[in-house]
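TA notes, week 10

Several of you asked for a full example with nothing omitted. So below is the full record: C-alpha cells for the whole chain, then the designed sequence directly under it. When grading your own attempts, check the secondary structure regions first.
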C-alpha cells in the first residue's frame, strides 16, 4: 500500500542489549491514530525514538512512505531562549512562514494572547505554563502540517477539555 508506515520484525533494545520490544510488526496508514500503551519503562518512548531514527539499538525494518513529512513531539519540550516566532517555525527559517499562519495556529490552540508577542525574545520555558508549552507544540504541528505526527506523552499537562480540543 502506498503511504503506509511499516514496522517489520522490529526488535528494540536498550544500550546494554536488554530487549524491550520484540517482533513488532505493524502497518500504519495516513490518518490512522495509534495509541501505544504499557507500564512505565516498557519501551514506549524508546519505540518512538527508534521510529524517528534516534535509537539505533535493535534490529528489524522500519519502512517510511516516500517523501514522508514527520514531526515528533517529545515528553519534555525543548524551549530555547529566542523569539516565539522562531519556536513556532522551527526547523524552518522564521521568515518563511507568514504572520497569518502563525496567528491562526496560536488561535486554534488557545494561545491567541501571544500573537502580539511573536518577536519577543524571552526565557519562554519560564514565561509559559506547562500546558501553554504543550499547546505551543500543537501550534507547531499546525504551522508545519506534517503528514505523520508522533506524540510521546506530549499532553501530560493538558486537562480533558484541552486534550480533546488539541486532538480535534
Amino acid at each position: 500500500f502506498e503511504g503506509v508506515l511499516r514496522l517489520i520484525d522490529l526488535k528494540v533494545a536498550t544500550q546494554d542489549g536488554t530487549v524491550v520490544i520484540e517482533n513488532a510488526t505493524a502497518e500504519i496508514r495516513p490518518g490512522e491514530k495509534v495509541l501505544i500503551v504499557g507500564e512505565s519503562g516498557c519501551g514506549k518512548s524508546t519505540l518512538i525514538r527508534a521510529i524517528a531514527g534516534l535509537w539505533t539499538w535493535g534490529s528489524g525494518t522500519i519502512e517510511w512512505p516516500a517523501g514522508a513529512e514527520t514531526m515528533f513531539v517529545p515528553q519534555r519540550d525543548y524551549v530555547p531562549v529566542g523569539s516565539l516566532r522562531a519556536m513556532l517555525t522551527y526547523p524552518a527559517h522564521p521568515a518563511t512562514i507568514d504572520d497569518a499562519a502563525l496567528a491562526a495556529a496560536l488561535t486554534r490552540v488557545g494561545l491567541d494572547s501571544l500573537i502580539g508577542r511573536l518577536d519577543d525574545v524571552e526565557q519562554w520555558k519560564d514565561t509559559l505554563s506547562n500546558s501553554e508549552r504543550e499547546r505551543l507544540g500543537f501550534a507547531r504541528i499546525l504551522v508545519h502540517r506534517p503528514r505523520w505526527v508522533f506524540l510521546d506523552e506530549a499532553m501530560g499537562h493538558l486537562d480533558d477539555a484541552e486534550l480533546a480540543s488539541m486532538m480535534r
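Residues 131 and 158 are 5 Å apart (CA to CA). Use that as a sanity check on your answer.
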